[in-house]
Amino acid sequence: MKISKLKFSRSLTESPLSRYFSFSALYIAQGIPEGILFFAMPAWLAMNGKSATEIAAFIGVILIPWSFKLVVAPLMDRFTILSMGRKRPWVIFGQLGLILSFLSIGFVPDPLNNISGLMVVGFCISFFGAFQDVATDGMAVDVIPDDEKARANGLMWGTKIIGTSLSLLAGTYLINSLGFTTAISLLSIAVAIIMIVPIYFTERPGEKIMPWSKGEANLESKESQLRSWSEILKSLYRVTKLRSSLIFIVISFIGGILFGLMDTILPIFTIQELNWTNTEFSELFSIINIVAGIFGMLVGGYLVDYFGNIKMLTIYLGLTTVIITAFAFATGFWTSVVFICGFIFSYYVLYIFLTIAVFAAGMNLCWKTVAATQFTLYMALSNMGRALGSALVGVLKENFSWEYVFIFAATIPLLMGIMVQFINFKSHKAKVDSFKVLDHTLVAPHVIDD
């Protein structure tokens, strides 16, 4: 039966509108703590005289849990309360942990002089943020049809960037006006409200809302649930050893280095080198990212669908190389606010479009049998690269001037652009389609049906 795209359904598989709304809300929930952890707090620390090495160490530590996604994903594929859906129980658990850990960061004593305490609590927030992200992505792979994936990625990343930007803007204002503890407590309320979404919507018709509710496991979920550890590992190895997948693994890692570098460089550079305040940086960053996020939501996915993934990745990576290189050599214009704003805007528009294209490429390389785990492998390696990129800022800045730091950053998208040319989606898909799915050899699934 065809369900109208203009109608909400409590079941995600029955309504595109429900899917777009739910996944956008869940990505906003990820964006709020990220805006505080990765942008507002580094800017606040820089404003209060903390060194680039201390700030880079803080960001490096809070990025580490995002590399744990590779361990968490197979666990979610293997175990679940199937009567509530394949991934939805994990989404609810991750969201609850995210709420509690985010609230706890506001109670770190003397945060300006307690970087270690901030690191510990920030690590916990990142862990549950990564946990929720794995579950959300796994649910997206399960319930979003192939012809909606690029558009859904555009909406998801657009709303996440908007959530990140708004939380940065509001967080900076609240920290400066009301203090650190009160600011974080207020923002935790917004994350808690979004908890309603995974509780209200189910993956498929007839599933339970909560373990004690009426309902049962959907037949489609039972048939697609992975049934043994050995099958998960064998299938994952089989698809990731293909050439295009191996190339994409390297691209994901070095792309993460680029993103980690730039996200850490910009607040330190603008505040400590250009003498901006943390309020000025957060306001500019938020406005730019909201606009860039809207662009990503409206056209990011469609451009990939229309022109093709390889072509758009090549264009985005080439433009990123050009603008960072030009900025590195244009030191005479660094005193111009308009020039700095133009550079940051150009970079973040390309960042969002590039992220959407990379995510779509990763999903296209996934084999449905282990899609959630395989996709998480790509993202975990990207986040390992982010942690390394953030940590490199302190080392680079201690040994080189800002010009050479930006030149180093510009070489990364150039290398990625060269590697992208060796990915062949058609050849990869043909090989994946030739794999034999031996469902009849698998043992009974170890899941909780009731």
TrEMBL record:
InterPro entries: AmpG_permease/AT-1 (IPR004752), MFS (IPR011701), MFS_dom (IPR020846), MFS_trans_sf (IPR036259). The chain crosses the membrane at residues 20-43, 55-76, 88-109, 115-134, 155-175, 181-201, 246-272, 284-304, 313-331, 337-363, 375-396, 402-423. Signal peptide: none annotated. Residues 244-450 form the Major facilitator superfamily (MFS) profile domain. Keywords: Membrane, Transmembrane, Transmembrane helix, Transport. It is found in: Membrane. It is a multi-pass membrane protein. PANTHER family: MAJOR FACILITATOR SUPERFAMILY DOMAIN-CONTAINING PROTEIN 3, SOLUTE CARRIER FAMILY 33 ACETYL-COA TRANSPORTER -RELATED. This is MFS transporter.
